[in-house]
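Q: How would the C-alpha cells look for this protein?
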Amino acid sequence: MEPTLIDMETLEGLLEGLVTIPTVPSTLVEINEILNDPEGSAQEAGQVVSKDPAVAVKVLRLVNSAYYALKNPVSDVSFAVSILGLKVLKNLVVQATVLESFGSKGKAGNISEEYLWEHSFKAAVAAAMIAKHAKDKVQMIPEEAYTCGLIHDVGKIIMAENLGAKYTKALFVGGRKKLSSSQAEMEAFHFDHAAVGALLADKWDLSPRMVKALRFHHLPWALEEEKDPSDGYLGHLISAADGLAREGHQANHPMPPSQDWEKSLEILEIDDETRAAILEEVEKTSRDL
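A: Here is the predicted structure in C-alpha cell form.
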C-alpha cells in the first residue's frame, strides 16, 4: 500500500487513537507568534531565544560560521538574530527543539536511534546542498531544506514510542519481505512515518511546502500535478537527500531504500560532480559535530 494525497484533517483522523503528535515547544510557539505579527522584530525574537540555551547555542554557532564570513565574532544573541533573519531563526528553533524532544538514544522499531540521527544529520546536509544547487527547481532556502532533512524520519521515532512492539514487529516482518520501512508501515498500519512527520510539521506550524516535502519523500511523483510547479520537486529533494545520506553512511541499515532516489537526482539535475561534492560533505558529517 502506498501513501496517497490526503489532507491533514483526514490524516489526523487516520492516526487518531494510535499516534499522538507531541505538542509544539514553547520557544517555537513564541517565534511563530513573532513571525505572524506584522510588527514582530528580530530584537523581540532575540529575547525569546536568549531564554532557550539550546537554540541560543545554534544561533551563535551559525552566525559565527564560515557561511556568514563575519570579520568579528558575534556573542550577542539579539544581534545574531538580526543577521540571520526570522525565517532562518525559525528553522534553527525547529532543529534545536526536535533534537531536544526526540534526541534520546534508543530503538525506533528495529532501527537504532543512534543510526537514525546520524542518518538524519547527513540527510540534512545533503538536502541543504541540493537546495542550493537546484534552487530554480526546488525554491527552498538551504536552511529550510536542512530542517526537512533533519526531521524527515522523526515519524519513525514517534511511531516506535506510540506503537511499541507492534511497530517493531511490523518492521521485522517488512524486513523479511524485503520491504522498505515505509512499505512495511503502510502494510501494517495504513500510514507511514512520512505521514506522521508531516502531521508534526503541520501541527508545529511549519510551512506548507515543508509539510509536502516530508509527506511525500517516499512517493515524490505524487506531487507532480501540484498547481505550483516547484512543489513537484519537494518530495524529490528529500528523496535524493535520503538516498545520498545512505550512500554516505556505511553502517548497515536493516531496511532497503523506499524509492528510486537516483531518479530523483536526475530530475533535480544533480550532475556527477555535484553528487560527488555532496557525498564528500555527507561522509564527514556526524551528529557529534
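The mean pLDDT is 85.

The first strand starts at residue 107 and ends at 108.

Upvote if useful.
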